[in-house]
Amino acid sequence: MKLWQKENTITSEKIEKFTVGKDREMDLHLAEFDVLGNLAHATMLETIGLLTAEDLTALKAELKVIYAEIEKGEFVIEDGVEDVHSQVELLLTRKLGDTGKKIHSGRSRNDQVLVDMKLYTRARLFEVVQATEKLFNVLVQKSEEHKNDLLPGYTHLQIAMPSSFGLWFGAYAEGLIDDIIQLNAAYRLANRNPLGSGAGYGSSFPLNRTLTTELLGFEGMHHNVVYAQMSRGRTEQAALTAISSLAATVSRLAMDVCLYNSQNFGFIILPDDLTTGSSIMPHKKNPDVAELLRAKTNRMKALPMEVTMVLSNLPSGYHRDMQLLKEILMPAFDEILDCLDIAAFMLEHLKVKQNLLDDPKYDLLFSVERVNELVISGVPFRDAYKQVGAEIGDGSYVAPRELKHSHEGSIGNLQSAEIRERMQREIAVFGYDKVQAALQKLISE
């Protein structure tokens, strides 16, 4: 069954295989959202007289049966059925006859797949937000646990100034907040209703797009029907851009773990059960989990460009090219969620080495502390800088190892509470509880 097929028309099997591609496989991820879109659309059609009250009651009952099958993992797209939209309509028509055929009134497959993709993307983005929050919480907890454990700070991979594990863990925690902000930008693009735009040019039916917007818990609608269609691709690209930003944060963290775990640095210890060995060198404990995290997240940085290339040179309106966007977007959500989960697991079990800066090789880390001592005693900074340089040169320099960092965000004042509060504010902005309430109402009434 195909929503577009006319009587006495046959598509070559070879062409059908090429044009459908992986769509049936990808569309299984959209099934629950297609049902939700159908429930909202049917409810709206009844209010404008294109469905009777009896039609709506029957359609809602059957759609809820399909939704239950999806939740139990029993929903399938049958052989010969092109996509999820066709499968749902086929099931409705089998049970309800002509009533099932009425549900497509005032709608195109274009805005049907658009609303499915918006709902899917919105839901998956918030899953990423929740997984990011879990990693954030581990980082903040580790930051507080190890706020007094000092760590060499580097610039240009040269020892620079004293840092701490508290600062290191906390830096990545705060970085995740910026990633949440980018996820929110993508979420807001996904949280607009395209339903009612049809094939991109609206309908002569008096569709109530405000109603479907409310029923599906959208923040608002794409007002212009042409732009509603043009948002296809833009939404996916925004989501993947946010994912790639988050991936970059995790990649950098993974690189630090690889570096700090090596014997030449020796700052952290990965437990045996988080490492692998060598087939020839019995001493090896390889940080494969961090290396694979680095590779997987580095690969995700390229995903926005894949979308850019698919969309290149497309004029306004719908084009079948956009079908391929599912194959880029959907696996990306699974990949980033897996990476966030394993990163949190790795950090929970990672151990830090204490008293690292007691080693004389780190004496020069405290040169700025020595400069500051002189400044406090009344020596102008530039003169103090030259004096400490001379002390280092003639061997008279003595490292002052007592740190007095107290300003906001420094070793002695991590501001973990403020960082936690900021993360909670940014997550609250999503308002996902309102979305869940709207969808729950739609499926239960």
From TrEMBL:
Organism: Dyadobacter luticola
GO terms of molecular function: argininosuccinate lyase activity
Domain of life the protein comes from: Bacteria
Keyword field contains Lyase: yes
Family according to the record: Belongs to the lyase 1 family. Argininosuccinate lyase subfamily.
InterPro entries: Argininosuccinate_lyase (IPR009049), Fumarase/histidase_N (IPR024083), Fumarate_lyase_CS (IPR020557), Fumarate_lyase_fam (IPR000362), Fumarate_lyase_N (IPR022761), L-Aspartase-like (IPR008948)
Pathway: Amino-acid biosynthesis; L-arginine biosynthesis; L-arginine from L-ornithine and carbamoyl phosphate: step 3/3
EC number: 4.3.2.1
Keywords: Amino-acid biosynthesis, Arginine biosynthesis, Cytoplasm, Lyase
Signal peptide: none
Cellular component annotations (GO), alphabetically ordered: cytosol
PANTHER family according to UniProt: ARGININOSUCCINATE LYASE
SUPFAM superfamilies found in the cross-reference section: L-aspartase-like
Subcellular location: Cytoplasm
GO biological process, alphabetically ordered: L-arginine biosynthetic process via ornithine
Residue ranges constituting the Fumarate lyase N-terminal domain according to the UniProt record: 26-299
Statement: the UniProt record of this protein carries the keyword Cytoplasm: yes
One Pfam family named in its UniProt record: Lyase_1
Top-level EC class: lyase
Name under which the protein is recorded: Argininosuccinate lyase
Catalytic activities: 2-(N(omega)-L-arginino)succinate = fumarate + L-arginine
